[in-house]
Specification:
- Chain B: It catalyses: ATP + protein L-histidine = ADP + protein N-phospho-L-histidine.
- Chain B: Its main location: membrane.
- The complex is a heterodimer of chains A (about 270) and B (about 475).
- Chain A is an alpha/beta fold and about 270 residues long.
- Chain A is about 40% helix and about 20% strand.
- The two termini of chain A are about 35 Å apart.
- The radius of gyration of chain B is 47 Å and the shape is rod-shaped.
- Classes of the chains: A alpha/beta (about 270), B alpha+beta (about 475).
């Protein structure tokens, strides 16, 4: 059972994604993992899936590759002898703005936050389903492209989004109610809420919502936008039968009826 | 009742018990001392009184022991200005108590003086009960005002040669009462000073002990070596604290080592599992590949459970104020999304300080169990006296009553065949219980019976203190 979490926000943008369309050539991946037993079959699998894969057994080898070229996305193991994946990721984000996905054996929340804070875009826990990894890679690349083409959509991840006393931390995917208690939300609900918070007081129809919140769990999500909205309402509306925050708009759509403010996360 | 009072009076702390013991011992010692002092002083005063009386009587005897005639039963004849009277009969009244030791002393003194003593009597009497004494006192008061004695000693002697009694009256000085008061005051003062000093000393001894106890309780909960005590207090206790600190450091080192080891095991097992998971993608047969994937998932889940169980007592994450109903709903929705028959019933809004990753894990295990063995999971969250109560009910066969307590132990499954269809290593309940306990709560299992007494399903109750 692989549980995976991704984040909507990204500050990793590639210049290459904006001008050259990925249709022209295969997407280039850099796979960094010290375990040859995993790295090699995974590289084979990804190659079969149409990616151009370069392998590195260590952070040092990865840096060697980067000297010659810039891949489109990096897959990094966290625990490696020598320089670890977190440190390499920091380097990639700072120097190349390269989208990264962590492959890790650890599944604890602290790792996830550390990984995402230093700028990784997503995270899969070993053992992962290879198809899921591919879905994640595509999702991260899609978001990176979108983020690059409409820069205003890429919000600063260090900021909290505050509405009606509620606060959403996009980085930690943590929603707190007006009293400060954490309210658990699923990935789909998080993305849905992000869509609303990025477009307050605007009517979003179902197709638009689906497009904006489409994530890895798309196969689950597209079953019912309405269902997700009603789940989200149950968690954030004082009376979910008579919703005030997320209003249904006649003619097919929803709207967040609240002011959204941005506040530094530390405050 | 008396026992309860006694147990209430009996101090429970080391300091209290030691202080009580010392206070009692001091009380006893000082009481005896004061008593002896009082006795000695008392005897000194009594002796002085006897000497006084003997002096007066001696003067009277050597003077003129002649008895004026025909003046009533006890003629209050003053003999040469002394307070000695002469009486034909014993002055002792029925309600007087004779002071035999003083009588013996008086007799000895008089015989030493070669007075031919036939009989000696000494009694004490309140001034108010003796007319002559009152008269004497009134006369004295005219010239001298001072504290009025309350008692008078009456010493009488009959000589061998005479049938008459010579009676001397000596006032018992009021200093005896004064002395008693002073003695009592002094004793009390010394007592208070000593007990107070002991209290301070005991505090010096017991304060570091109390600090150590608090520290131990905290360590038992956090298992974190931060906030260790400085060695303090008397040598023995300072050494105890030093030894405790060393032990704490040892425990922390062991736990750290365990965590590192578990991390390494997790990493070392999950990487080959991940490799395996990738390799099976080349298997052509879809059914076969799916089976392999399921097996790998089972191994991973068991591994996660083992790693979690080993870490549950030492969580690295802090508790966070969390809305429990949203958390329960989130887990239920995960199962709903997988198309599982999960129902969410009552769900009260309850905010608790929780480690939500752990609670999620417990709920997943419990709901997963209900679905695996009970076909359906009905989940509810209610607030009961002092607790948030999460109930997960299923429609399964329940658990044999004698197996229920056994079920919470590791590697136990309700299904004795342990066939792989049902999956899991039997750690789910153990882990859920450990997570409940990590939060100070409880996990209980109970069969739900229908009207006919037949088992209709299992109710699992996770209770978290609110």
């Amino acid at each position: 059972m692989t549980r995976t979490i991704d984040s909507v926000a990204t500050i990793c943008r590639t210049a290459a994604m904006t001008d050259t369309s990925p249709v022209d050539r295969p997407v280039r991946l850099m796979l960094v993992d010290d375990e040859a037993a995993l790295r090699e079959p995974l590289a084979d699998y990804l190659t079969r899936q149409g990616f151009a894969v370069q392998q590195a057994a260590s952070a040092a080898e990865a840096r060697e590759i980067l000297r010659a070229e810039t891949p489109d996305l990096a897959l990094l193991d966290i625990m490696m002898p020598g320089e670890d994946g977190l440190s390499l990721c920091r380097h990639l984000v700072e120097t190349r703005q390269l989208p990264t996905i962590f492959l890790t054996a650890r599944g604890e929340a602290t790792d996830r936050i550390v990984g995402l804070e230093i700028g990784a875009d997503d995270y899969v826990v070993k053992p992962f389903e290879p198809r899921e990894l591919v879905a994640r890679i595509r999702s991260v690349l899609r978001r990176a492209t979108r983020a690059a083409s409409e820069p205003q959509a890429a919000e600063d991840r260090a900021e909290l989004l505050v509405f009606e006393g509620w606060a959403l931390d996009p980085l930690k995917r943590r929603l707190t109610d007006p009293e400060g208690a954490v309210v658990a939300i699923s990935s789909a609900e998080f993305r849905l809420l992000m869509a609303f918070l990025e477009h307050p007081r605007r009517v979003l129809d179902r197709d638009r919502l689906l497009d904006m919140v489409q994530g890895r769990e798309a196969h689950l999500f597209d079953r019912a936008v309405d269902n997700q909205v009603s789940r989200l309402r149950r968690k954030i509306e004082p009376d979910s039968k008579n919703p005030q925050l997320i209003q249904t708009v006649w003619g097919g759509g929803y709207m967040l009826a609240a002011e959204v403010r941005r506040r530094p996360a530390g405050a | 009742m008396r026992e309860r009072l006694l147990s209430w009076l009996w101090p429970r702390s080391l300091r209290g018990q030691m202080l009580l013991a010392i206070a009692l011992a001091l009380f006893l010692a000082q009481g005896i001392g004061a008593l002896l002092l009082y006795r000695a002083e008392h005897e000194r005063i009594e002796g002085a009184l006897v000497h006084n009386a003997a002096f007066r009587l001696g003067v009277a005897i050597q003077g003129e022991p002649k008895l004026p005639k025909g003046r009533g039963p006890e003629r209050h004849e003053r003999l040469r200005g002394s307070r000695v009277t002469m009486a034909p009969a014993s002055p002792v009244r029925a309600d007087d108590r004779r002071e035999t030791s003083q009588e013996m002393e008086l007799r000895r003194i008089l015989i030493d003086q070669e007075v031919p003593v036939a009989e000696v009597l000494v009694v004490h009497r309140p001034v108010t009960g003796d007319a002559l004494a009152r008269e004497l006192l009134d006369r004295r008061d005219r010239r001298y005002r001072g504290p009025r004695p309350s008692d008078v000693m009456i010493a009488a002697v009959r000589l061998e040669s005479s049938p008459n009694w010579l009676v001397a009256r000596v006032f018992v000085p009021p200093t005896e009462r004064l002395m008693l008061r002073t003695l009592f005051g002094q004793t009390l003062f010394i007592y208070a000073v000593l007990v107070g000093a002991m209290w301070l000393m005991l505090r010096r001894i017991t304060r570091p002990l109390a600090a150590l106890t608090t520290r131990l309780e905290r360590f038992a909960e956090t298992r974190d070596s931060a906030g260790q005590l400085e060695p303090q207090g008397p040598d023995d206790i300072a050494r105890l604290i030093t030894a405790h600190n060393a032990m704490e450091a040892g425990i922390v080192a062991l736990l750290d080592e365990k965590d590192v080891m578990l991390g390494a095991i997790g990493h070392d097992l999950k990487t080959p599992l991940a490799a395996l998971r990738v390799r099976i993608e080349t298997v052509e047969d879809d059914t076969e590949r799916q089976r392999m994937a399921t097996t790998i998932e089972d191994i991973t889940r068991t591994l996660d459970d083992i790693l979690s169980l080993a870490r549950v007592g030492r969580p690295t994450d802090e508790r966070e104020s969390t809305e429990l109903s949203a958390l329960v709903a989130a887990v239920v929705e995960e199962y709903e999304d997988m198309g599982e028959p999960v129902e969410l019933g009552d769900s009260a809004r309850i905010v608790l300080p929780l480690r939500s990753t752990w609670i999620r894990r417990a709920l997943r295990n419990l709901i997963g169990n209900a679905l695996r063995y009970g076909a359906v999971a009905r989940v509810s969250l209610t607030r009961e006296a002092g607790a948030a109560v999460i109930r997960i009910a299923d429609d399964g066969p329940g658990i044999a009553e004698d197996q229920i307590s056994h079920m919470l132990e590791p590697f136990t499954r309700g299904d004795p065949s342990r066939n792989s269809e049902t999956g899991g290593a039997g750690l789910g309940l153990t882990l859920a219980r450990a997570i409940a306990e990590q939060h100070g709560g409880t996990l209980t299992l109970a069969n739900r019976r229908g009207p006919g007494g037949a088992v209709e399903g299992l109710d699992v109750t996770l209770r978290l203190p609110a």
